[in-house]
Amino acid sequence: MEVLTYRIGKDKRSLVGPSDSITSDHVLNWSGSQDNLWVQGRQYEEGLRQVLVNVLNSDGTVYNLTGFNYIFEGFTPDGTHRIYDSKHGIAVDPVNGQFRFDFPKQAFATAGSYKQAFFRLMKDGQSVTTLEFDMTVLSDMVISGIVPSTYISPLDDILEQYYKKYTDADADILAIKTKWEKTIGDAFDKWTSDYKSIENTVTNLQTQLQVLTAEIKSDQIVTIPMMQGWIDKIANIIANMHVLTTLKVGRMTLADSDNIYPTIHAYIYQYGAGVAQANIDIGGGSTVYDIPVRAERLTPTSINIYIDSEAAKKLFSGFSMVDNPEVSVDGSFAYITSGSYGLAIEAKGSAVTGFTVDSAFKI
């Protein structure tokens, strides 16, 4: 391991050019008292090229490095890129002015002699620097590796942290997405067949997702409060959807219709055909109301029917269906009658051959 020894306040060199500008015409002279200050490595070395640094005061006493950060600053041989590394300095014996520095792979990307290389010692926002040392990089004619670039370790750390947060956030967003897919899927199972209601809800959800997509595409950082805001909006949309208060009516049997799925409708009414109105001896009828219905297809000829019982109660004050209602079928309709109230289920586009009322059906 190379050893570099510095005396802060005593080490000195002459200026390079009128303004100490290190260029191809003005280079550091490494002869004389500083010829022991050198580090040499080969292209594409990584991590194992180390140097032990001793720091002394001008009088030869040890320079106490307790609480210091050790930074390597270098101007690469190509005269284009710079290295600023505050990450790889390691305290060995700070009280006695000793630290080790493990050079990063970026320091050995370009073969040649560094234009400038030195250490900056920082503590509490203040700093002092060592004299330069001769740093050379031998070429590797066999393999190629690192593309030369400027390396600033604090920025590199921030980018690594950001990438980690990004990948973690990606997993978090996936978990949120999975949760909401299930929530929305469960909601769909309860929605009415009212197409307009579903269309409006989907439009509202798409709007919120477009806002999120636009934020991501514009490279905006998605914060937790922003994400929570979108979640709250989606939750509000779902909370305000027209949810079907499902009540199973029973199972409808259809004639075989070449696997064509019929459109299902449900209607409620009072005083249907053949049912006499109160105090009147002849059959009459009331206004017929279309109520929300959901069909669960079991086989091409068998369907479970569910209705929104709350909607029925709102349309007819006192609407009820007690135990063992009467059932009849005719064409594409099944009729369920209980007292003066009637429920008709239509399988539009098919013929109904039977209907079995669910044992728990009651309104």
What would your notes on this structure say?
The chain has 363 residues and is α+β, with helices and mostly antiparallel strands. It has three domains: 2-149, Immunoglobulin-like (Sandwich), CATH 2.60.40; 156-239; 246-357, Immunoglobulin-like (Sandwich). It has helices at residues 153-190, 195-217, 224-239, 309-315, and strands spanning 2-8, 38-42, 50-57, 69-75, 82-85, 89-93, 98-102, 112-113, 116-123, 126-129, 134-138, 151-152, 246-254, 263-270, 289-291, 293-299, 302-308, 326-330, 333-338, 341-348, 352-357. Strands 10-9-4-5-12 form a five-stranded mixed sheet. Strands 15-14-20-19-18 form a five-stranded antiparallel sheet, with helices on one face. The chain has a four-stranded mixed sheet with strand order 1-3-7-6, with no helix packed on it. Helix 2 runs antiparallel to helix 3. The longest helix is centred in the middle third of the chain and has 38 residues, at 153-190. The protein starts with a strand and ends in a 6-residue tail after the last strand. The model is unreliable at 278-284 (pLDDT under 50).
Annotation keywords:
3 domains, five-stranded mixed β-sheet, BppU_N, alpha+beta, Immunoglobulin-like, Minor capsid protein, five-stranded antiparallel β-sheet, 4 helices, 363 residues
- Rounded to an integer in angstroms, the radius of gyration calculated over CA atoms is 41 Å
Q: In terms of per-residue confidence, which ranges show pLDDT below 50 for 5 or more consecutive residues?
A: 278-284
Strand content: 25-35%
Mass-distribution shape = rod-shaped
- The total count of helices amounts to 4
CATH class of the largest domain: Mainly Beta
Largest sheet: 5 strands, mixed
Count up the domains: 3
Structural class: alpha+beta
Helix fraction?
10-25%
Mean pLDDT: 78
* Oligomeric composition of the shown chains: single chain
The CATH topology of the largest domain: Immunoglobulin-like
Walk across the major sheet and give the strand order: 10-9-4-5-12
Gap between N and C termini, in Å?
A: 90 Å
Domain BppU N-terminal: 35-162
Protein name: Minor capsid protein
Pfam family, one: BppU_N
